[in-house]
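Private note to self, pasted from the team thread so I don't lose it. Backbone tokens:
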């Protein structure tokens, strides 16, 4: 159900009262997008701006609110108050007089007038005292005596006044954190044993990102009241923010020991255990938090992140969705759900989740960034560049967005812009190994190159993470290759691959089992193959398959240069909708094959761009050739073959973003996997015969025209001269081959691996010669 403006306003006010300032800001901004002159939204957003000391913005918002509704007294008071704080005394005087004309309380305006006069003369307004009558003086003396008597009874300085405490809470609830902090500091200085004020001050420091100060304040609160579970929990949260995880764990557990049903402490313990890498324990803590507080949306969201890290994607998805049910505008949960869906290969659904997150929080830089990553993986590079650009606009120091914008621009062939963005990412974060690796790929190094020195310095720095060291090694290997120091390049390739394999924990046994499943499951699939539908207007797929780095991108560039073909890039649809059927994990009857066909073609239609012939260049679809042939009898299947040693080496020297290509990071794994691949291709050849067109990459580079003509003829297309100049194809390319396909076809690339032969110690010798 669509909300009214008034309902959104009330939600914003409620969030504002609860101290959820980011949420309140989003809601007020949403109103102003629909009604830019809405008086209450402008005023309340101005109050938020004051709380973060953005006086200029606050004045503009208050002025807009007044112009929209000049009879609202609070608008004038807020406006005048900020003018005085900004020392715009003349403007404040004018506003006071204008307010009087609009019927604002003269008494209240005169108070502000006195303040202006005092501050304009350099006096402290608090020191100005109005004249009092004799009766008032007597009342004041009586009150002073009573106060002194109470102080004697309680002990001087034992507790702040109720007025100050109420004011402290009011400041917090209205987002006036600066004023709240000043008052809290004043109270703790005057009443150093007042535990609540220390606890409150710790909370304020935490909200404003000053976690060291938060720890100090929270430690004071714990010392003053060791049995206060909330104080221990707050201390744990502050320690976690500083990375003092063992201490944080102790504090959270102490809070739980004092109050076993404290849901927030269980959740905070889960956050700490997650950061300690103890993921199973973290899920236990989140489960307890949810059991104690079933509507704890943050715990559901954090549980989802932990389950995702454990690879339990279905459970993670369910957890995020429950968080969203409890809190539909929970932008963070929408974005994290998108991450899970993206990891599961469900890119269209991930795109929807990121878009939802952005709708609820338009300035959510991370959601824009994640959407960009998804669009890039979908091959929609123009849209991805826009998403990355927005992420950077909302967060100018977002180095990852700068780097990925560079990658998208690289895929579009805009190399100068790509280089500028990689350099910007490195400037923002000098130890950003991934940006160094990307930059290294698009440039040619010489012996004086400054980037080479920077990468070498990072390589020698023992404090950088293994992940960034991995990227740096691949970048240095490329630099050494340019400098023709192949021995040192091999050293860096070896170390980079070792670190990547360690992170992915790849075991070849899983692939051995997978390949056997594919062959044994084909018997049932073949018996239920779909009959050709000659009346259909569905797009016809061309599946381009083979080992990664075997030339599949080049072949797609050639075919998609044809005027009747759309090049869709590496589509995940076959895996998404058909993997379980191909592996025998779900039924392979006629209905399941028809459903697979329908789901795949529905998605293919979205990327067809009005052409009836579309290429799907996912190399790993060689795994599913049997299923693809059965479900799409009208489809064409092009298998690209390349010299085995060349293709294995090309894989070894490539850092693949996908975590699903784990066999590439050890030469022995590559050789084993290549053997599995050749064995499976022999199986498909025996089973399907002429259904598969085998294209030899080396022959294509030597006899380009004749091989290209034969390929186009097999596809049943009329000849198009553009197919001989694939380097002129302007479509975006999001694969690791995006640089090579911008160049003319050249010979000899399959011989490059021989430069490393002296250092391979025969690792590739057992592969077939061709």
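Design output:
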């Amino acid at each position: 159900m669509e909300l009214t403006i008034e309902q959104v306003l009330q939600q914003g006010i409620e969030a504002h009262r609860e101290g959820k300032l980011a949420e309140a800001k989003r809601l007020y901004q949403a109103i102003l997008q629909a009604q830019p002159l809405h008086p209450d939204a402008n005023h309340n957003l101005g109050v938020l701006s004051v709380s973060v000391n953005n006086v200029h913005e606050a004045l503009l918002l208050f002025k807009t609110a007044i112009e929209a509704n000049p009879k609202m007294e609070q608008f004038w008071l807020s406006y005048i108050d900020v003018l005085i704080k900004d020392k715009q005394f003349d403007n404040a005087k004018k506003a006071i007089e204008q307010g009087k004309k609009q019927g604002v309380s003269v008494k209240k305006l005169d108070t502000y007038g006195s303040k202006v006069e005092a501050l304009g003369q350099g006096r402290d307004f608090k020191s100005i005292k109005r004249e009092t009558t004799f009766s008032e003086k007597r009342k004041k003396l009586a009150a002073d005596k009573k106060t002194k008597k109470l102080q004697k009874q309680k002990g001087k300085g034992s507790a702040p006044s109720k007025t100050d405490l109420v004011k402290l809470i009011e400041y917090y609830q209205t987002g006036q954190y600066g004023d709240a902090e000043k008052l809290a500091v004043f109270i703790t200085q005057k009443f150093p044993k007042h535990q609540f004020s220390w606890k409150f001050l710790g909370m304020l420091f935490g909200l404003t990102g000053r976690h060291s100060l938060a720890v100090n304040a929270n430690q004071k609160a714990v010392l003053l009241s060791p049995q206060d579970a909330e104080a221990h929990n707050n201390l744990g949260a502050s320690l976690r923010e500083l990375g003092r995880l063992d201490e944080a764990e102790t504090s959270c557990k102490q809070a739980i020991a004092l109050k076993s049903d404290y849901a927030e402490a269980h959740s905070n313990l889960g956050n700490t255990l997650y950061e300690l890498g103890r993921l199973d324990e973290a899920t236990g803590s989140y489960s307890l938090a949810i059991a104690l507080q079933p509507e704890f949306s943050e715990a559901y969201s954090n549980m989802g992140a932990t389950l995702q890290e454990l690879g339990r994607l279905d459970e993670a998805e369910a957890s995020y969705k429950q968080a969203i049910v409890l809190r539909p505008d929970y932008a963070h949960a929408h974005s994290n759900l998108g991450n899970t869906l993206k990891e599961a290969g469900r890119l269209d659904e991930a795109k929807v989740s990121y878009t939802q997150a952005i709708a609820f929080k338009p300035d959510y830089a991370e959601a824009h960034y994640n959407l960009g990553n998804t669009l890039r993986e979908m091959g929609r590079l123009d849209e991805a560049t826009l998403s990355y650009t927005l992420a950077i606009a909302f967060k100018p120091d977002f180095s990852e967005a700068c780097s990925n914008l560079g990658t998208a621009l690289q895929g579009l062939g805009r190399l100068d812009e790509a280089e500028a963005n990689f350099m910007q990412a490195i400037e923002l974060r000098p130890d950003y190994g991934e940006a160094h690796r990307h930059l290294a790929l698009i440039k040619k190094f010489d012996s004086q190159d400054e980037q080479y020195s920077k990468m070498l310095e990072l390589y020698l720095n023992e404090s950088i993470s293994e992940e960034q060291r991995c990227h740096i090694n691949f970048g240095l290997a490329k630099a050494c290759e340019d400098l023709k120091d192949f021995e040192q390049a091999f050293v860096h390739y070896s170390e980079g691959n070792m670190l990547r394999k360690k992170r992915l924990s790849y075991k070849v046994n899983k692939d051995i089992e997978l390949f056997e499943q594919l062959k044994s499951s084909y018997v049932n699939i073949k018996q239920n193959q779909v009959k050709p539908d000659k009346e259909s207007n569905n797009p016809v797929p061309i599946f381009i398959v083979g080992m990664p780095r075997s030339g599949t991108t080049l072949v797609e560039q050639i075919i998609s240069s044809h005027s009747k073909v759309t090049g869709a890039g590496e589509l995940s649809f076959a895996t998404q909708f058909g993997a379980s059927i191909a592996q025998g994990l779900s039924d392979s009857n006629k209905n399941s094959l028809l459903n697979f066909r329908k789901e795949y073609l529905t998605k293919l239609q979205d990327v067809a761009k009005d052409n009836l012939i579309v290429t799907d260049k996912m190399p790993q679809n060689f795994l599913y050739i049997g299923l693809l042939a059965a479900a799409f009898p009208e489809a064409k299947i092009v298998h690209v073959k390349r010299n085995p040693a060349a293709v294995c080496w090309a894989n070894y020297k490539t850092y693949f973003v996908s975590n699903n290509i784990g066999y590439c990071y050890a030469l022995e794994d590559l050789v084993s996997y290549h053997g599995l691949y050749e064995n499976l291709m022999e199986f498909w050849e025996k089973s399907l015969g002429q259904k598969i067109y085998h294209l030899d990459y080396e022959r294509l580079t030597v006899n380009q025209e004749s091989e290209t003509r034969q390929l186009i003829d097999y596809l049943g297309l009329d000849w198009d001269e553009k197919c001989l100049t694939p380097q002129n194809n302007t479509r975006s390319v999001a694969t690791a081959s995006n640089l090579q396909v911008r160049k003319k076809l050249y010979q000899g690339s399959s011989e490059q691996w021989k430069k490393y032969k002296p250092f391979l110690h025969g690792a590739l010798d057992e592969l077939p010669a061709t």
